[in-house]
Amino acid sequence: MNHESSTSLENLLAEDRRFPPAPEFVAQANAGPEMSSWAAADRPAFWAEQARQLLTWSTPFTETLDWSGAPVARWFADGRLNACYNAVDRHVEAGRGDRTALIFEGEPGDGRTLTYAELQIEVSRAANALLEIGVRTGDRVAIYLPMITEAVVAMLACARIGAVHSVVFGGFSAEALRSRIEDAQAVAVITADGGHRRGSAAALKPAVDEALAGGGASVRHVLVVRRTGQEVAWTEGRDVWWHEALEQASERHEPVQVEAEHPLFILYTSGTTGKPKGILHTTGGYLTQTAFTHLNVFDLKPETDVYWCTADVGWVTGHSYVVYGPMLNGATQVIYEGTPDTPDKGRWWEIVAKHGVTILYTAPTAIRTCMKWGEDVPGRYDLSSLRLLGSVGEPINPEAWTWYRRVIGGDRTPVVDTWWQTETGAIMISPLPGVTTAKPGSAQTPLPGIAADVVDEEAHPVENGSGGYLVITEPWPSMLRGIWGDPQRFADTYWSRFPGIYFAGDGAKKDEDGDIWLLGRVDDVMNISGHRLSTAEIESSLVAHPMVAEAAVVGASDTTTGQAVVAFVILRAEYLDQVDQEGEGADVAATLRAHVTKQIGPIAKPRTILVVTELPKTRSGKIMRRLLRDVAEHRKVGDVTTLADSSVMDLIATGLDKPT
Ligand code: WT7
């Protein structure tokens, strides 16, 4: 366990508040206590039953799980289905076409609602438009859009024709987009002129043009949604307006029924090396687990609930809990384009009150930001429609948990702290509302059908009351099927630390009751505002700048964002003078921050840049980030005995007086 984890462990041990489910909630809850025992008795049979109950198959499956090709699982492999049909058409066929599917809130105050019937027409047109520009089943399509209805439609349209979507978060740079397009060999990009962000129109199309100018030769067409109306450069023959393509397309399209193991999407996430991993998810198992968890963890009542997940579709939460889970269950949901403080800090709560949101799913960083803004802000709105709150992305500290329940949930709602990852595809560990007595700060129990444990270095389960590494010991339906184009990296990253079991990369502890408390990453992955970033990726960006000779990046605790990026850089000799002159140091930091923003995106921008003359390394040359984290968090520096040169830390401490 690293230093950071043991500190938070002590804080968490002191947490003894308990929140048993209210009898009124229990009486109406989707989940019951019996579910876990029957799932444990025959895990595959439990999931097969969910797959049959929750999805519509054009060819029913007869095989449940094939683990003979481990670590690549095959679930329901002889069945066929279509994800978009399941998310849209079947609701219309069952007479529920008039139900609102999407309530869109634009940042400037515009809005749009789409029923399931309207959505069926729009996704059919979009599917035909994709076919028209030559996209075929199995092709990859990059999606680079703001949080608007077209993002949902674009993903579903790909699924409808069996094309594989690769959504790239709109906050990522042209360079990040280019590398993802190239890795997946995408044949088309779906983007927009721009999106509304913090009160102004932020352009997106120029990043696509830049990405394709520098590479991306596989791309034949770019579909462009008109959102902001701003000027865009146009490449004749390549660029096509989305609205024109859809207008010309037929509103009828027969969904392509694919095998259960047909790829549904690739989503890139940061790992411990500089190169992002294309996490691959397939169809049948992924849809089964997203539908099941969305129904039971959020206690969804599709006829009456108004659900809102604040995540962007650029992240896995947006895939599983904006697009697939909710729509498979026929939910009515809100999607919001902008930031929580535009035009003012009450915007989220105004949306909750305006649409009568009943279920809210967000991240601890957002909750802590609202805490900072003060409870009088949400206090100005009627939030009494809320009946369940969810949290995801990073450990939620007990203070944020209890604030969330008290101020937003009116001291009434269950709060579910849901642990999962891009790789797991769907929620894995979470309290079940109506069943679990909640403990603030703990994700608590593996869901029915999930086998998770905390183990020591030798893969032995730890005793209750002890900490170790979080692992998943049995295959689950929505597990990743690999890293796009890199089966070896898949095996090495997740399956080699503890042979045969899945290593999540998180530290965890089992309390006296056996409940699981997540303690953060144990590898070189940071978690900034619930978004995963790799230390190595930012380091390689920094050393790509001519000023920088060497760089080391750590995630330091931050009261709002969970962790913040802190970079230690050694400058090349030619630039060192610059730092020595008063005031120039700040320019170094500003230049490097702008450089990382350009290369990766604003979320990767270091909060602090410290210019140093040495970095602490072991004799084998590995940077000891643990020591740098001590410096960044203003702690006494820990054990330095494994350093090649133990005086280095003194040098770093002296260097910190510099005005950077
Ligand atoms: C990492 C996965 C899952 C969607 C958002 C992030 C951390 C996630 C929790 C939680 C403690 C959490 C873990 C995990 N994490 N949820 N409830 N409690 N930690 O997806 O980018 O794939 O990141 O986020 O460290 O490994 P991701």
From TrEMBL:
BP GO annotations: acetyl-CoA biosynthetic process from acetate
Name of the top EC class for this enzyme: ligase
Catalytic activity: acetate + ATP + CoA = acetyl-CoA + AMP + diphosphate
Gene3D superfamilies: 3.30.300.30, N-terminal domain of ligase-like
GO-annotated molecular function: acetate-CoA ligase activity; AMP binding; ATP binding; metal ion binding
Binding-site list for CoA: 197-200, 317, 529
Statement: the UniProt record of this protein carries the keyword RNA-binding: no
Known EC number: 6.2.1.1
CDD domains: ACS
Domain AMP-dependent synthetase/ligase: 94-484
Family: Belongs to the ATP-dependent AMP-binding enzyme family.
Protein task: Catalyzes the conversion of acetate into acetyl-CoA (AcCoA), an essential intermediate at the junction of anabolic and catabolic pathways. AcsA undergoes a two-step reaction. In the first half reaction, AcsA combines acetate with ATP to form acetyl-adenylate (AcAMP) intermediate. In the second half reaction, it can then transfer the acetyl group from AcAMP to the sulfhydryl group of CoA, forming the product AcCoA.
Name of this protein: Acetyl-coenzyme A synthetase
Organism of origin: Actinotalea soli
Lineage: Bacteria, Bacillati, Actinomycetota, Actinomycetes, Micrococcales
Gene expressing this chain: acs
